[in-house]
Amino acid sequence: MTLAYIITESNKDIEILQKLLPKNLSQDIKFIAGESSYRARSLASSLLATRKVPVALVLDADTDNQSQIVERYDLINYVLNQVSSGIAYKVFFAIPQLEIVFLQDKLLIEKIAQRQFNDLEWQFAKSKPKDFLETIFANSKQINLGIFDNINDEEIQILQQHTLIQEIINFLSSLIPSSVAIS
């Protein structure tokens, strides 16, 4: 049984979420990559309208401009609300990109990268996390491998404390019938 769909912009985003979401929550989740922000939004609409299963839509904001984020959030929510027929859904924006979760703890990313970052590098990291990590790990294909191959369960728990991950966990937890214990 599919508890919910998590729709992202890319397979790399799915890899990140599958590693960071607790197994007891993600086992009944179907992950789908939209391959773009527009296609992800379109998939979310289609799934809500046809499958009648809850949807979590996880998108990169690609900005930290709060008014642009709110405007985009309101538009997407309006569209999804039109097709949801009361089915639970939630739109999550990674500000500015999902890779920001890897920067939850400066000491941890410095340990993984095996180097320290100065204030200017850290500022760049926070504003363009994907570009920063691609530079550190040589290319985009190596980001997830470079990070997940070099951290343990305790360090994954640190990354799980990021607000975005916590919000997704809370949404998914709200979908589980109260008779099912969360371990």
Question: What characterizes the major β-sheet?
Answer: 4 strands, parallel
Radius of gyration: 17 Å
Ranges with pLDDT <50 over ≥5 residues? 179-183
| Arithmetic mean pLDDT | 92
Strand content: 5-15%
Oligomer: single chain
Please give the count of helices. Answer: 10
What structural class do you assign from the helix and strand content?
Answer: alpha/beta
Q: What distance lies between the first and last C-alpha atoms, to the nearest angstrom?
A: 19 Å
Account of the 3D structure:
The chain has 183 residues and is of the alpha/beta class. The chain has one domain (4-175). It has helices at residues 11-20, 23-26, 37-50, 66-84, 106-113, 119-127, 129-136, 143-148, 153-159, 163-175, and strands at residues 4-8, 29-33, 55-60, 89-94. The protein has a four-stranded parallel β-sheet with strand order 2-1-3-4, with helices on both faces. Strand 3, helix 4 and strand 4 form a beta-alpha-beta unit. Helix 3 (37-50) runs parallel beside helix 4 and helix 6 packs across helix 7 (129-136). It is globular.
